[in-house]
Amino acid sequence: MTDLHSAALIAVMALVTMALRFLPFLIFRNRETPKYIAYLGRVLPYAIMGMLVVYCLRGVSFAAVGSWLPALISCALVVALHLWKRNTLISIIGGTVCYMVLVQMVF
């Protein structure tokens, strides 16, 4: 692949990404946001987080304690951190670090 081809690919990807980011602002410039779009803005973050939880826990096996206990402890830590700090990033990082430590060093 030539350097010109790579640069063209990057330019096209950048333009498409920028167009997708700016398009809603251009469409709704002088209008009120439709109620359905506002509803999706309120509901989708929770739905996506629920789907991520299901995705992360889909492979948990209850055959041995060592396979489900780290996931349970980490999920409990995520909930506790979020209730304590109200910061999604801290909750996710804390749960991930806890899970990795438990899986790599304890179980």
Q: What's a concise summary of this model?
A:
It is built from four helices and no strands. It has helices at about 5-25, 35-55, 65-85, 90-105.
Return residue spans where pLDDT drops below 50 for at least 5 consecutive residues. Answer: none
Structural class determined from secondary elements: mainly alpha
Major β-sheet profile:
none
Element order: H for helix, E for strand? HHHH
Helix content: over 70%
Distance between the termini: 46 Å
- Percent range for β-strand residues: under 5%
Provide the gyration radius in Å: 21 Å
Number of strands: 0
Total discrete domains? 2
Mean pLDDT: 90
Structure description:
With 107 residues, the protein is an all-alpha fold. The chain folds into two domains: 1-31; 32-106, no CATH class. It has four helices and no strands. The chain has helices at residues 3-27, 35-57, 65-85, 88-106. Helix 3 runs antiparallel to helix 4 (88-106). The N and C termini lie far apart (46 Å).
Ordered list of secondary-structure elements with their pairings:
Blueprint: H1 3-27, H2 35-57, H3 65-85, H4 88-106
Helix pairs in contact: 3-4
From the structure above, extract its key features.
mainly alpha, 2 domains, 4 helices, 107 residues, single chain, extended
